[in-house]
Amino acid sequence: MSNPFEPINARLTNLEALTLETLQLLRSGKNLAASPGADDPLTPDEAATLFRTSKVSLWSWEKKGIIKGYHLGNKKYFLKNELMAALTKRGGVVSHE
Question: pLDDT tens digits, residue range 3-28?
């Protein structure tokens, strides 16, 4: 008798592989200085480098609603255009309060 969950597991594995491949394609060949309006997903480390701050500040700003983070699986990402918009909206200065 065949396991009824095998087709589901196969589809989930394929979906996970596709998601990882898509993320890899989005991130390949991009750098932080390229086109400030692009929807580049940034890791917390990359976002902290962009803002020249710590990841703790990013979490604080996210909690306050200044920036928005996204989850893909158990990984956290920020969209570059949203980070740049938040920085521009605040006149280039984000409060640490």
Answer: 888 888 888 888 887 787 777 777 77
Q: Are 62 and 46 in contact (CB under 8 A)?
A: no
Tell me what the mean pLDDT of segment 78-83 comes to: 87
Structure tokens that stand for 87 in this block: 């920085």
pTM of the model: 0.53
Q: Could you give the CA distance from residue 44 to residue 83 in angstroms, rounded to a whole number?
A: 11
Which residues sit opposite 62 in a β-bridge? none
Which tokens go with 23?
A: 């993320």
- Using DSSP bridges, classify how beta strands 69-72 and 41-42 pair: parallel, antiparallel or unpaired: unpaired
CATH architecture of 31-97: Orthogonal Bundle (1.10)
| Residue 46 backbone phi and psi in degrees, to 5 | -65, -40
